Amino acid sequence: AAVRRVLLLGEGNFSFAASLCGAAGIHVVATCYESEEEPYFSFTFEGAEVGFSVDCTKLKAYFLPEHREFDCIYFNFPHCGKKAGVVKNRELLARFFHSSAEVLTEEGEVHVALCNGQGGTPADQPRREWHNSWQIVAVAAEARFILSNVHPFKAETIHGYKCTGYRSQDKSFCVEGALNHVFTRSMPLPYFKPMICKIELESQKVSFQVPRVLVDKINRGFLELNSNHPVRTVKEKLTAELSQAFPLQNTDYCLSLLHQGHLNGVCHSNIFWIALSPEEETPSTEEMSNGLRNAVLFSHVDFCRDADKNGWVNVQEGCRISDQYYLRPSLLPYAQAMVQKGAVLPGTLHVLSGPVFRKCLITPYSMPVFHEMVFVCAVNRGIENSCIEMLMNNIKTSIHSLHQTVSGFKPNINLKEARSFETTELNDFAAFESQLGKIQYFICMETDTSGSCEKSSCVGIIRTAHYELVSSELVVVFASLNLDLLAMLICGISDWRILWTSDTRFFRQFPRGELRLFKSFSLYPPSYVHDVSFWVPHGEPFDEVAFHTIARQVSSEMVVSIQLIDSFQQSETGRKSLCYRLTFQSCDKALSRTEVAEMQLLFRKEINQRLCVTLR
């Protein structure tokens, strides 16, 4: 096994270094800030290099290029010395993290031990007020580090360790309740170039610009055979269970990414409208597949060119054209079309699955894209309730099995009559489904013991419809499940965005075919609050969904909350002013104050241009 190189900074009496020396598989480089007659690295003891006069904010200067990569850096109880306050110590940490980034391996760790309360995270007990702490997660984020673990620093378990250095003196200090903070490198914030999708639609080769908010989500292949994503695991488990009770047929392969026509009852502001362009180049047959999985995606910087010069239609994202194409918001229309074409075999359970796209407000459980699974079964009139019961029993069995394996207990899964729900009680998934037509039942999953069906727990719906098919009247049962929400509830994931991360630390937690409780690799991420106020155009309704969608786009989904905090209308002119509070926070990446300030400026510019509001 390779030897791990460990760098120790700010060693006072080298007792921590001595405790590590001789450990198998590590090479220790121990340093302190204080000087000796010979600066830098002056001697070696028990296999460890020792250096003096080493400034933790300029580490790159002390090591030759071939010796700059450390697997682990320890900085125990950093302090500027004497009576330095929290601001100076924050500055020290900031410069230290930037310096560490230059000498740390890609998979390396930075360990920072702080006295109780200094870090400013919820792990501190008691927790200091944020402004009176060292704000370690926010400071580390500026250097692209995330807090991946935090645990007690138990000095008594470290052989021979003595805490000295109180106010730069040879005095001990209290380390009761001290915490060791473990930081790792963050993936960079995403930068998405405009993207064009080429497909074949009704025998015509076309292309369209992918809405910016979906560029990193439209072709991820979570349901593919080689995927180990928990969403696919949930789908496979459901399919396997239901195939024991019904003859089962999958029909995913023929589903088009785009839909055309009018969806009765659906609010247009919830739809991702698409403007098509005629495609001049002729891709291969594989590239021209009609399905989402085989759509060809490529970056296209100059995506809005003049049609006369280059053959592209001059349209912007969101423009509505006469054909009225839009990204599919539901698989239900495809299921209904199968029934009307007579492609549904009575007694057979037909299964459709794939991602669907819906504009929605920003909440932890509101997803602009998720994987839907639709079941279709045609039965003779009078036995539809038996079909629903059998379908629900098998769904319950598979979810119970999954959840019990992961959490050790069975959640409550119930059918609740739609008429017993108020609109305000529905989560975005259920509320949108209600726009598509009458619903008989909501499928609710309760993962706590309170018995309440909270907004986050409505994971599916069931509706029925009567059809005259082949001279007989059949009742068709349609059931729809939100696979992403199911995966979240089963695996204890509190933020939908983590399902779409590209970080391998997420995927390593879910070996193929296995679900586990998710353990966050970015703890206590810093949040930043910005307000924006503006006048809305007189006499025009304000499109709040569009407002939220712009926030998603400019922040790359870093806005976690938008709250209306003030509304005012001038009596003289009738003009209306709104003030919103935006909270920025990442669930998997380092997000700095500087980056958020840039996002906020861009957001102000975009709402001014696209929503025609007047900023205040």
UniProtKB/TrEMBL annotation:
Residues 523-616 form the FDX-ACB domain. SUPFAM superfamilies: Anticodon-binding domain of PheRS. It is found in: Mitochondrion matrix. GO terms for cellular component: mitochondrial matrix. Keywords: Aminoacyl-tRNA synthetase, ATP-binding, Ligase, Mitochondrion, Nucleotide-binding, Protein biosynthesis, Transit peptide. It comes from the Eukaryota. InterPro entries: aa-tRNA-synth_II/BPL/LPL (IPR045864), BMT5-like (IPR019446), Fdx_antiC-bd (IPR005121), Fdx_antiC-bd_sf (IPR036690). One of its GO terms (biological process) is translation. Gene3D superfamilies: Bira Bifunctional Protein, Domain 2 (3.30.930.10), Ferrodoxin-fold anticodon-binding domain (3.30.70.380). Its main location: mitochondrion. GO terms for molecular function: ATP binding; phenylalanine-tRNA ligase activity; rRNA (uridine-N3-)-methyltransferase activity. It catalyses: tRNA(Phe) + L-phenylalanine + ATP = L-phenylalanyl-tRNA(Phe) + AMP + diphosphate + H(+). Its EC number is 6.1.1.20. Belongs to the class-II aminoacyl-tRNA synthetase family. This is phenylalanine--tRNA ligase. It comes from Lophotis ruficrista.
